[in-house]
Amino acid sequence: MDALNVQERGNAKPHQLRRDGLTPIGLVEKGKPTRKMQADTKSLRDAISHAQGIGIIEIQVEGESKRRTVFLKQVDRIPHTPQILNVTLNEISKNEVMTADVHVNAVGTPPEVAKGTGVLVAGHSTIKLKGKHSDLPGHLDVDVSHLEPGGSIHAGALQLPNGVELASSPDTTLFSVTHLRTAEPEAAPAASDEAPTGAESSAAPEEPQE
């Protein structure tokens, strides 16, 4: 994958950049103010889709001879659309140890859930992991097929890659199974022998006999 080419933003407003097919970028460098950059929107989307691990990509800053390694710290989009508004990139070194949020995915179906009598509850969708960016996984798959109602899986039970440590609390609940509650049928109202108060009779009144 080629490095993403980025350039200094200049004085252009964000909406002007987007209209011209460019995306505003904030480049975070250690000990320096965040640099205002820009990149071709299509190239940026391709770079994001091919990002490694926790979102690692390489960029080529215009005027520099060496590539930089960065991770996607934040991608702002218009809600419910793929359109990117802004991107924040954080520069990292090769052996830098960092803490990142990693998504946790449930794999498999618990028996009670498969029968329709249980519900799988996701407590947290991400956990914090610590390690070199080259060691941090893009996500973790967790087998939930053995869970029974009342059972749960906590972060401390996860098997992590070599060189990676858990930064979240080991007691963090990731998945659990509960019984599916069914609504109880409402009792029918008791029948009454008395006519409702104020009810009108549908029978015609009898005429007096002479």
Brief summary of the model shown:
This protein is mainly β and 210 residues long. 9% of the residues lie in helices and 39% in strands. The strands form 3 sheets. Strands 1-3-2-6-5-4 form a 6-stranded mixed beta barrel. A 4-stranded mixed β-sheet has the order 10-7-9-12, with no helix packed on it. Strands 8-13-11 form a 3-stranded antiparallel β-sheet.
Mind sketching the topology for me?
Blueprint: E1 4-8, H1 14-19, E2 22-28, E3 35-40, H2 41-49, E4 56-61, E5 68-77, E6 84-91, E7 97-107, H3 111-114, E8 118-122, E9 126-132, E10 139-143, E11 152-154, E12 165-166, E13 173-179
Major sheet size, sense and barrel closure? 6 strands, mixed, barrel
Helix content: under 10%
Total strands: the figure is 13
User: Count of helical segments?
Assistant: 3
Say what the CATH topology of the largest domain is.
Answer: Ribosomal Protein L25, Chain P
CATH architecture of the largest domain: Beta Barrel
| CATH superfamily label of the largest domain | Ribosomal Protein L25, Chain P
Structural class: mainly beta
- String of helices and strands: EHEEHEEEEHEEEEEE
* Averaged pLDDT: 87
Strand content: 35-45%
Brief descriptors of the model:
3 helices; six-stranded mixed β-barrel; elongated; mainly beta; 2 domains; 210 residues; four-stranded mixed sheet; RNA Polymerase Alpha Subunit, Chain A, domain 2; Ribosomal Protein L25, Chain P
